[in-house]
Specification:
By secondary structure, the chain is of the alpha/beta class. It has 12 helices and 8 strands.
Length: about 300
């Protein structure tokens, strides 16, 4: 999610270089594990690691797919958790042409997925825009949330210049929108980009070229976090804020992490050198912290009962 005017120069450069992404790049094939949850507005695609461990719902940020958790999810599953990674509405393999797109609507989708599995407690991991969605869900069904992990999250309204907003409206248009987004997306990995980032971005741009998908991303960029921010006081589940120290989506990443941790009465982990996706750049560091946080939350729940 783009929030600061400091990214305008980067965005302009990305638009100029967009033609560097191969136009014929093909979408990565769907895995056999893909399942779908049918909802009134469409259907949500998700993967399920299975097992009897505590449920963890992993939600990517806008303009990305559930494959974002390709490094974190296996580590959580190996620690005994049942990990479900979902695609946002209009993204990945989820259906397009939903009536509306917003972080709050994604929060409602998370709630629906938790209820679908019929568990008494679940953890939510939300990246970027989905941080606000996790907050929304945690406030909606507080008795069902064991804890939330917010990775470089947008949990409140952050002012954006009208000039940048106008630029983004043009930059996200077809036919160049998917390639522009891919170039911007690549810039968010700062120190240790994964070896497969090139192929991942090629598959991502191919997915965004499909009808309705870049439009869904654009709609989420301009959707307000206000309904999610308003619910912060109603969140009582344990919270962990994970933030890359070099996340250019925030003017001051440490200050934003402090704000979220303070208002959610949670803990904070700053990942040195990481950008907007620390769980991809440094999966071992992030997975270790997340697993410890979830086990501590489980221990705390057991003591209370």
């Amino acid at each position: 999610m783009i929030s600061t005017s400091t990214n305008l120069v980067l965005a302009a450069a990305a638009l100029t270089l967009a033609t560097a992404i191969p136009a014929g790049a093909e979408q990565a094939p769907a895995t056999a594990a893909t399942q779908f949850l049918k909802l009134p507005g469409g259907q949500i695609a998700y993967d399920d690691s299975g097992g009897t461990g505590s449920l963890v719902i992993c939600v990517p940020g806008l303009g990305d797919v559930r494959g974002q958790y390709r490094f974190l999810a296996p580590r959580l599953a190996a620690a005994g958790f049942r990990v479900v990674t979902m695609d946002l509405p209009g993204h990945g393999e989820s259906s397009v042409d939903w009536p509306a797109y917003s972080p709050a609507i994604v929060g409602a989708d998370i709630v629906a997925l938790i209820r679908h599995f019929g568990v008494s407690k679940a953890f939510i991991v939300g990246n970027s825009m989905a941080g606000g969605s996790a907050v929304w869900a945690a406030a909606e069904i507080p008795d069902s949330i064991a804890g939330i992990v917010l990775i470089d999250p947008f949990t409140r309204v952050i002012p954006t210049s009208s000039f940048l907003l106008a630029f983004l409206k043009v930059a996200m248009m077809r036919p160049w929108g998917p390639s522009f987004w891919s170039m911007y997306y690549g810039s968010l990995y700062k120190t240790a980009p994964p070896a497969d980032l090139g192929s991942y971005r090629s598959a991502l741009v191919a997915n965004l070229k499909q009808p309705g998908r870049i439009e869904a991303t654009k709609a989420l960029i301009f959707a307000s976090q206000a309904p999610c921010e308003a619910r912060i006081p109603k969140v009582h589940a344990p919270a962990l804020i994970v933030m890359g120290t070099r996340d250019s989506d925030f003017t001051d990443p440490a200050a934003e992490a402090d704000w979220a941790a303070t208002h959610l009465h949670g803990k904070k982990l700053m990942v040195e050198g990481a950008g907007h996706y620390p769980h991809v750049e440094y999966p071992d560091i992030v997975a270790g912290a997340v697993i410890d946080f979830m086990k501590d939350a489980q221990d705390g729940e057991a003591r209370r009962n």
